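Practice problem: predict the structure.
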Amino acid sequence: MRRGIPVLFCTLALLLLTAFQEPQIRVEVEAVNVLVTVTNKRGQLVTDLAKDRFEIREDGAVQEITNFSHQTDLPLRIALLIDTSSSVRVKLDFEKQAATKFIYSVMRLADRALLVEFDSGVSLVHDFTRRPGDIAKAIKKLRAGGGTALMDALYAVSRDKMTEGEARQTIVVVSDGRDIDSRRTMEETLEMVDRSGVTIYAVGTNRFAADRYDKGEKLLRDLVAHTGGRAFFPYSVERLEDTFESINDELRSQYNLTYVPGDRHTEGQFRKIKVRLLNDKGLIIRYRRGYFSPAR
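Answer:
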């Protein structure tokens, strides 16, 4: 019994000592990457700017750019979303031809792409693959019919498929913008897009016919503007092919600005990003409007 008393005393002393020690706090610092596209007034890409030409702010506070590069070979994760609703029936063949050429031209060995079709619902036609031929075969099988659930498609793909931070997450949506069946709102969709860090490019197809739908074009413009992407509205097959080529060029010609936010008091909340060019000389820049800080 006496031998047990010192042991018990030492154990209690150790517990008391541990209780009064300062707790170890693990602080995780996460860098923010912002892809920036720069063009001149004629829409031509500008790719020779130096780091000191850029200024970046988060919630109004200037941030130090810790890494700066002109990204030409960062792996791409491309989600190709094709509208197969009844309203695009007469245009679907053109869309399929151009989308097939796009996939073959844009994909490199490190890239991956998937194919989603949407009408009244959303269907994953082919999951991520490194083989463009797989996507091309799936594109050929698309058929038109039904309504349009564009927001639902963007929401689902952003939530379920665009989750890999080391690659450029890109959605290319081909649609006339006539969203009549979505359950998700524009606000819900943009929040999910922000959380996944996706850049959206839109190819509007309603100018192929006489029934131009201005409301659909506005919807597509608003979507891409929020993410730093771009909307195109070709009016011929040739222009459609040029559009996909322009998207390809842009994806390989962006600046990557990296910074570590100095303020972490608003975890889990939306943080506004503003990038500007010093001495811009009339240049135009596009980038995502912000991001959701990770919750602890």
